[in-house]
Amino acid sequence: MTPLQFNNLEIRLAHTDAEIDAAQSLRYRIFYEEMGAKPSPRRRALRRDIDPYDTDCDHLLVVDLDRSKKSEPCVVGTYRLLRRSIADTSAGFYSEDEFELGALHHYAGEIMELGRSCIDSAYRKRGAMQLLWRGIADYIFEHDVQVMFGCGSIHGTDTQQANHVLSCLHHNHRAPSHIRPHALKSRYVPMDVIAKDDINIEKVQGKLPPLLKGYLRLGGYVGDGAVIDYQFNTIDVCVVVETENVTRKYARHFAKGNALVPPAHVGIAAE
User: What's the confidence (pLDDT) of residue 201?
Assistant: First the structure.
């Protein structure tokens, strides 16, 4: 994909070991130091969030050009992208540690896993997320991706605290059967614990993470069942987004020459 620049920020794919290393360093600061994930001894020693999937993925980066040096890119946002055409010839998908993806594996078109999304705290109100979504839109055009999926995380591991969010997602945003993942039986956490009419939408709005809100704005769905990830201190759901919604709400928006701002807000379904 062609790099794109907005003021001092540039969106591009990583092409060097130094760029991937900078993304892993950012991921460590956000996931482990800020959000309380539990690092392995090797990750703690390196101060890097690393795993075997990094070598198979494309790494989408937001780089602050003003703070970068030639050999030291200042990465302030990142997303990890893995297409099925690559995963099928390597270790598979990261999400399969938590979810059974059978329905997606049978999908005829190209599918892509999104993961390890994070943004430096100083850039969360400065257009970095919009740039990442612009980069994703360009990437799915280039590779003809029809469905995206990945783990969407709710901070904390207390399911009682997340009951209203999980129930709202289950009742209002459950994926159709032909693209619906299922939490592994050994890790399955029910999501339909509160009746639809008893859900407190104010609680949902207050607890739903911004990234999950973003997926829902794009018409995203969730799979069946959640999983507790004790290492990352999260409750995970599997999110599925049909990319025609991305192209309609983001790519066409930017193609018209609009500024790098998100399209009209679409709230959580409360019907």
Answer: 87
